[in-house]
Amino acid sequence: xxxxxxxxxxxxxxxxxxxxxxxxxxxxxxxxxxxxxxxxxxxxxxxxxxxxxxxxxxxxxxxxxxxxxxxxxxxxxxxxxxxxxxxxxxxxxxxxxxxxxxxxxxxxxxxxxxxxxxxxxxxxxxxxxxxxxxxxxxxxxxxxxxxxxxxxxxxxxxxxxxxxxxxxxxxxxxxxxxxxxxxxxxxxxxxxxxxxxxxxxxxxxxxxxxxxxxxxxxxxxxxxxxxxxxxxxxxxxxxxxxxxxxxxxxxxxxxxxxxxxxxxxxxxxxxxxxxxxxxxxxxxxxx
Length: 287
Prior knowledge:
Structural class: alpha/beta
Strand order of the largest sheet: 3-2-1-8-7-6-5-4
CATH topology: TIM Barrel
Distance between the termini: 24 Å
CATH superfamily: Aldolase class I
Number of domains: 1
Helix content: 25-40%
CATH class: Alpha Beta
Strand content: 5-15%
Shape: globular
């Protein structure tokens, strides 16, 4: 990590591939030069990249794009909406074959845009988990659809038990649905209930905007997993994690006790170590 343990005594951050403190980046159509630029300046902080919704299906030179991400030891996953289109078209087998041909190691399974029977979704998670690392997603993309916290918790537990590596909480790319209200206000009571019932290390909270990112870091600490991060927000997010921005400097950098551990302890989050993490599903498989 660049300057991660310099004279400022910043919070320690595990090296890639990490299991906690994940930054899940959304790629809405980056070209190869833009990808190279992102990794040139922020590669240490990019843990997984999602090719938003169905962009992978209409992207030219997709093979080159995936190969470039793999050269940076960073897994790529197609957006959940593409998966939902696959299910709606009854093309699951063809989709698995296509993912294999394109050398995807990860897959997102969601039901935020169409209705998939609960048992069927769990079956699909179990089925795909045999060949891929599964990220499942809970929550609706429709801002008018609101589920009770106990439903979120139950579904997330079921999906982890079915074989999901991490469960993503829906937030959309603009923070207007799922764990957010239509106006962008976060449903903090819902998030608190999730954190009370489920290890937050098992969750990736979609948080595309700075105010949400800062809230999660102030509440759960620097090693909270955050998703749908725009490429140009990767470094700004890392400064939030390290307390190098006004929004988190008091809670992270200037917290009492060991630097960087303050808000994490109340949720039982272990300290990050500076050495490399154990083998992680984030490391792409194959050559």
